[in-house]
Structure formats: C-alpha cells, structure tokens
Amino acid sequence: MKNRLILPLLVLSAFALALGVFLPVVEVRNLAIFSNRFSIIEAAWQLLVDEEYLLGVVIIVFSVVFPFGKILAAGMLWLRFTNTDETPTKWIGRLEFLGRWSCADVLIVAMAIVVTKASGIAGASMEIGLWFFAASIPLTAWAVHLIKKSGES
After folding, report:
1. Which H helix or E strand runs over 27?
2. What is the pTM of this model?
3. Which residue, 36, 72, 89, 139, is most buried by CB atoms nearer than 10 A?
C-alpha cells in the first residue's frame, strides 16, 4: 500500500469535514428583515438546548462523529496495512458500505433548505460550509478506493 495520494486525501477530507461542520451551511431570511446563518454544530447544539435530544444526537452522530470516524478508520486501515502484504478486503468492504450513508447528511440539509423556501415564510440559501461538508464525501470515498486498489495489487 504505497499510494502517496491516500494520506493527503484523508487529511484534506478531514479538513473539509471540519470546515463543513463549523462554517455556516445555510442562511435563513425571514420577511427580508431578519437573517440567521448557522452551522451543523450550531444547529445540533440548538436542538439539544431546545430539548430535542433525539434529533440533536442523531445529527451529531451522523454528521460529525460518523464521518470523522470513517476518515479515522480509513487512515488506521491504511497505516495498518501499509507495510504488510495482507489485503484488507473485509475492512474495506465495511468502509465502502458505510460510505453509502454519507450523502444522507447533505440530503437532510438540502431538504431543509427546500422546505424552508417552499413554505414562503422564509428564504434559505446554501453557505460555504455545505460545500466543504459535501466535498469531504468524495474525498473520503476516493481515499478508500485507493486503499482498496493498493491492497489488490
């Protein structure tokens, strides 16, 4: 497993994910007077403050913990098998399976924007954080693909 792109891709993916979690992902405008921008972590925190524990925890787990864990697992897998001839197909298969759920986060944010716009009460627009958040998904998938490809050769 000597592919030199894997580590930079994982680092870039983690950096993009961190920016996506902490930078504003959506701006909501009410009656063209009030405007509020929020990040994923701010939205999750506000849900916890508002005692919407289940939804807040689900967002934290699937939008923060799960994606960072997947990047960390890919990095550990890559490091573990870098100097061995062992093919990590079982673990790579698991990472690929988990990667299929990554787009769910972006879909939820996009649906919130569509619902907000459709209600007519408020307008919403995507912010830079959503783009970083979305960018981490293919970066991680590419790194996992390269790990798999390196293990097969």
Report:
1. strand 24-30
2. 0.81
3. 139
